[in-house]
Amino acid sequence: MTDKLFAAQILTPSQSITSGDGRFNLILQEDGNLVLYRVRDHHALWSSGTNGQDIKRAAMQGDGNFVLYHTDGRPSWATNTNGKNGSFLILQNDGNLVIYWPQDPVWASGTVQ
């Protein structure tokens, strides 16, 4: 498992990334919601709020934006971090989901544990 998504990498329903220490998991659920869980008690720390939508993929784009897309290609949710070419998404060991560009955080879920 990986703890990062780089440009052009995606998650499809039921795929996930896990923090390096295995304590946190980010999954694109079948119901369309992207959810960050604390593994030990399966407690949801953050979500995209897109449950019930027909989300096909979560994409870390080359322009630095992390976007959830409907099956018809329309965007549903985004971090609005475009213009940051070379950014990457990481699920840190402290439970925070962060986009870095290149070394500076430009977006975070705010879920430090």
Automatic annotation (TrEMBL):
Using the record's annotation, list all stretches that form the Bulb-type lectin domain.
2-112
The record's section on InterPro entries has:
Bulb-type_lectin_dom, Bulb-type_lectin_dom_sf
Record-linked SUPFAM superfamilies: alpha-D-mannose-specific plant lectins (SSF51110)
Q: Coiled coil located at which positions? A: none
Source species, domain of life: Bacteria
Q: What is this protein called?
A: Bulb-type lectin domain-containing protein
